[in-house]
Amino acid sequence: MGDFTGDKVDDILISLDAGGSGGYTYNNLYSYLRNQPRKLYDNEWLFQTYSNTSVEYQDDYKVKVVNRSLRKEYLLDISQREPDYLSQLYDANGNNPCDIVRRNGSWMFPMRLKLSTDSC
To answer: What is the pTM of this model?
Structure first.
C-alpha cells in the first residue's frame, strides 16, 4: 500500500511473480478512494500502450529503442553494464556481430548467409 497517484489516498499494488527466470511479474494497481475500489493499472494496459516497440543492439554498446505507439525513439549507452552481460551481446571490440533485434517482446536473430566461426 502507498500513495502512487499523489491524491493522499493509499493505493494497493498487487504484484505476482510470473515464474521462470525472466523476472516477469503480473501487476495491478487499485485506488480505494471513498472506499470504492477502482483499477488504475494492469499489465494488459501496459502491453496495449507500449507493445509496438523494437529494441536494436547497435555497435559501441548502444541500444536503440523505438516505440511507434508513442512516436518516441531512445538511444541508450549500456557500456557500464557487467562484462558478463555485455559479452553475450558484443564482441571484444564492442561490435554486435549477431545483429540482435527485439520486436514486441520476441527476440529475433537474423540469419547470416556466409559461413562464420561466431556463435550467431
So the answer is: 0.51
